[in-house]
Amino acid sequence: MRRLINATSLRFQILSLCVLCGVVTGICAAVSMVFPWPQSSLSLGSYTFHHWRLTSGVLLVTIVGLVCIIAAINRVIRALQMLRAGMERVSVGDLQLSTTLPSPTSDIAALQTTFQQMVERLGQVQADNDNIHAALRRRNQTVDRLLEFSQTIQGAGHPEQIYSTLCQFLQNELTLSGIVLLMHEPDAVVPTQIKFSLPQNVVAQSEVGRDLEAASCPCLRQHQARLFRCDGASVRCMIDSRLRDAVSQPAYCIPFNIGHKLQLALHMLLPQWESWTDERRQLAHTYVNTAQSALTSLHLLAHAEQQSMTDALTGLYNRRSLEQLLEREMALAERHNRPLALFMVDLDRFKPINDSHGHAAGDHLLKAFADCVRMTLRKTDLAFRYGGDEFVVALPQTTLAQAQQVVQKLRQSFASVDFSSAITHLESQPTLSIGIAERSAADNLLTLPALLSAADQALYDAKGADRNCVKTFQPPRAA
To answer: Are the C-beta atoms of residues 264 and 288 closer than 8 Å to each other?
Structure first.
């Protein structure tokens, strides 16, 4: 453009000079032809005076006209130069129209209008480009936070850590006013309860830890995400009655499963002036899906570990895990100087029942005893299936006298089981033989093998005393 304008300016100037020379030469020739030189010398002076006066007038008019033409040409060239300067500013990214641009003339009006339209379009393109870059930056930041969240929960070793991390990231990312995590586990003591919440005061203090009705939650019942508006157009979730000012806030709930039984629901609240856009909901689902994958991995790992440590029939710990868990309890008892009682149980006449009534009857007998153990013992107690019909039970922080009370409760629970519906023609109610021992420095029972041997000796004494009784380990007396 610069070369074009420079070449145009030079051409206009050369053309102006040529036109000026041609016009002057033509005028002189015309004057000479119209007014020839006189032949008489008498009138030469007068004729010469009129001749040069006319010639001077014509030349003056011609020069003035040419000056006007040159001025107009220079004005056009100046306007083109200013347009060139504007284009140079545009080429370096300055899209603001200069206030020094000349007013449009008839010769360059179309060019200037085109230039202004070009600048406006380039400005719109630049604004769109800035918006795209801003959206990309926001998306990159979102992806970075998602990666950070994924890396954080991958290192978690317990579901509680994932619950808290998920709620914190969602609250920060979606600018939530509150978030509540519901848990529904049919076999739990409290089947449906609030597992986690942010902030802490979003749940009414009187509702913490209370049982909820899973059937009144449409998300848990239908197992699909649902949007709850605050305009009364949609049925709200039952969790609203447990939260502070939840009805006045738009909510979105996402249910998801962990394993076959555990069901979770994430109930999220936005401030009143916000709304649940498609982008917000998709982002929430992305976070939940990432957390669900991590929780499923932990669940499968815990399930596999439990299967490797428990007996498939009774659900109690197996013999493989006995040494590992009891060694830990022995070490804790020694470190904190706490008592530890242990007893061994044998089902009396189990083999005749198994042979005469079949293996299904024997399995039912073993499972019934395991159920009695779970109902009688504390959560901190450990029960193991030691052999076919032999069991070992460890009672941490329990003295020998307290262990005898636990054993009597276990015998009463087992004696109250009705086996007639599962085992026909059973001659008598099955009974238990139990031997008890306590970790003791006086009896030199400070190691796990010694304690197990002492309980086994007490069980042998109980079986030798015609079974269906409880014996306590008695160390051999010196002769």
So the answer is: no
Rounded distance between C-alpha atoms, residue 316 and residue 374, angstroms? 9
Which residues are identified as catalytic?
A: 389
The CA-based angle 373-374-380, given to 5 degrees, is: 105
Q: What is the pLDDT of residues 100-113, one digit of tens each?
A: 455 555 445 666 67
- Where do the DSSP E strands lie in 354-469? 382-385, 390-396, 432-438
Q: Whose structure tokens read 């076959």?
A: 260
- What are phi and psi for residue 29, nearest 5 degrees? -65, -40
pLDDT at residue 398 is higher than 90: yes
The set of residues, in sequence order, having a beta carbon less than 8 Å from that of 418 and lying 6+ positions away, is none
Half-sphere exposure of residue 379: CA atoms within 13 angstroms, side-chain side: 0
How many other β-carbons are positioned within 10 Å of the β-carbon of residue 220?
22
pLDDT of 376-389, one tens digit each?
A: 999 899 999 998 89
Distance CA 131, CA 104 (A): 33
Find tokens 């509540």 and name the residue: 180
The rounded distance, in Å, linking the Cα atoms of 307 and 322 is: 14
Spatial distance between the Cα atoms of 225 and 217, rounded to a whole number of angstroms = 11
Phi-psi category of residue 57: left, alpha or beta, with phi > 0 → left and psi -120 to 50 → alpha:
alpha
**b or e along 422-460 (b: 16 or more beta carbons within 10 Å of the residue's beta carbon)?**
bbeeeeeebebbbbbbbbbeebebeebeebbebbbbbbe
CA atoms of 381 and 302, how far apart (whole Å) = 20
Q: Which two tokens stand for residue 16?
A: 């102006």
